[in-house]
Amino acid sequence: MKLPPISRRKAIFLLGAGAIGSSLDAFFIxxxxxxxTEKELKLPLLPSSLDGLRIAHLTDFHYDPDxxxxxxxxxxxxxxxxxxxxxxxxxxxxxxKTKNIAPLLEHLSKLEAKHGVFAIMGNHDGxxxxxxxxxxxxxxxxxxxxxxxxxVLNIGGDLLAIAGSDHIWHGHPDLTRTMKGLTSxxxxxxxxxxxxxxxxxxxxxxxxxxxxxxxHGGQCRVPLIGYAPRTVSFGRKYIYDTxxxxxxxxxxxxxxxxxxxxxxxxxxPELAMLTLKSA
Length: 279
Ligand SMILES: [Fe+2]
Hints:
Layout: H1 8-29, E1 35-43, E2 54-58, H2 65-81, E3 86-89, H3 101-108, E4 117-119, H4 123-128, H5 131-140, E5 144-145, E6 149-155, E7 158-164, H6 175-178, E8 188-191, H7 198-204, E9 209-212, E10 241-245, E11 248-252, E12 270-278
Parallel strand pairs: 1-12, 2-3, 3-4, 4-5, 7-8, 8-9, 9-11
Antiparallel strand pairs: 2-12, 6-7, 10-11
Helix pairs in contact: 2-3
Bound molecules: fe (ii) ion.
Fe (ii) ion binds near residues 62, 214, 216 and 259.
């Protein structure tokens, strides 16, 4: 079918209208629009007895109560409605203000998961305050905060380790301490803020699954092809979605918040609901 020709003036008008519409979306709509990603992850290192375990993964809040209160309310409501077994929070809770930790924790303290809520440091948290300060505040609300350490859950007789590293960018990640006491027989969920550290993790040992954020999925992506023009240190190789190395798997989330200009395009805030399947 041959399309009718359009005048130069009409073409310019349509391009202008498209640009204005995209800008309105990127600045005023998309940063506030929570999306829920449902994903089944086939994990070679997951025992079949833990098949079906559901993890809610949230990351990169960069919380500012002036702009993010309603979005965060929605995040908590949507997460609890999923009735997850485990909730993993992989860092960058704040952007650059210590005073925003307490109001964010008012939200996060309402999170509910059958086997607990687990959190780690992000680079923005580490640039703003100390790990000890974050750990103290989070653990007062009942959230387990892991810095180069692990905890082992007993789920109906099956062991599952959750190992959280310090942030990588100017932090002090120590994989030996993070994996201390864990044998290869214990399936391990590794929480590491910066995804590119996956290469270091798998060089040391296989992990059932690593969860990361940090990249915000690029924050602005080219629609349809998903190309992210802007990348960040330690988040250049693994920007969004699922990756594998040997028997290990990595999932990188787009995260909830924004850093720099509050803008997102073709890359909305994300609650990732991950259903683990034994492969
Ligand atoms: Fe971030």
